[in-house]
Amino acid sequence: MATRKSTAKSNVSAEELQSYYRDMLLIRRFEEKAGQLYGMGLIGGFCHLYIGQEAVVVGLEAAAKEGDKRITSYRDHGHMLACGMDPKGVMAELTGREGGYSRGKGGSMHMFSKEKHFYGGHGIVGAQVPLGAGLAFSDKYKGNDNVTFTYFGDGAANQGQVYETYNMAMLWDLPVIFVIENNKYAMGTSVQRATKSPSLWERGAAYGIAGEEVDGMDVLAVKAAGEKAVAHCRAGKGPYILEVMTYRYRGHSMSDPAKYRTRDEVQKMRSERDAIEHVRELLLQGKHATEDDLKAIDKEIKAVVNEAAEFSKESPEPALEELWTDIYA
Ligand SMILES: Cc1ncc(C[n+]2csc(CCOP(=O)(O)OP(=O)(O)O)c2C)c(N)n1
Ligand SMILES: [Mg+2]
Predict the structure, then answer these.
(1) Shortest-distance atom of ligand 1 to CA 248
(2) Cβ atoms of residues 50 and 322 within 8 Å
(3) Distance CA 38, CA 91 (A)
(4) CATH annotation of 14-315
(5) pLDDT digit string, tens, across residues 234-250
(6) Which of 49, 175, 316, 318 is the most buried (most CB within 10 A)?
(7) CB neighbour list of residue 227: distance below 8 Å, 6 or more residues apart
């Protein structure tokens, strides 16, 4: 793999680097396991894996504090793990079991955690964007300094509701960070095929919203940009847009023939830009960890993921009466 320099300052501690490595690896291994369980027929419905995009959530969570909120789309398992939700509860929800975060009734796209301030999991493209501004409104109304990370994709960024939300968020100085996870594709449609205005963050200028583009394969760069955005919001200056340039290695969902891109393109990103490999290099080169230390972390993560998978198989299916819980009427 080509050596590359992080754009962020390198005064990062061994503990910090190791924690990013661990958190990104947990997401990668968890998603690989979810892919396997899906292949075995243990996960039904849609399943959108986050493999390749790990540095985005891990970098931004490193900039967050207790009380901050997050909301995202259907590609949501990474966000849940990064904010500290239990891998067992997430995996059991994927397999539709009682021990899952929505007691087996929500599945991959519909999980929530009040405790971790995670507001879903939304299958309707872009729907979480106005909801995210609403969450930020609630914090502004209460007068605290929490911010809301509102994640959406490059495809969602072409929706009208995003721009209505930008307008209101700026008008009311809402503490919301709009995180555009630009993984270059919306299902099979590349950004270039979808718009002639491909710099998505710059569109905020029409509403007076500040923002920037970030290298989403570099967790330190993401964290640095996240800190800047968070400081902006906490200072009461209104919303901020981060367009995080990333890449998904797997298909849009588990049923994607992937005819819209070449294997070489995917392979090139994996071998030259992988975010986990990057931190691995920083750890080894900076003598912040030995190969043995990293092996021990890998082993520890594998055990956590295997335990989650076991739990997700052993937890019972929800009882029929569960149909009548968690509903309005
Ligand atoms: C309103 C709506 N339109 C269409 C779809 C079908 N759909 C699901 S995901 C998707 C692509 C979204 O791509 P992007 O926003 O880039 O997110 P990514 O999948 O790359 O994370 C589409 C069109 C949907 N779920 N909701
Ligand atoms: Mg996309």
Answers:
(1) 20
(2) no
(3) 11
(4) 3.40.50.970
(5) 999 999 999 999 999 99
(6) 175
(7) 63
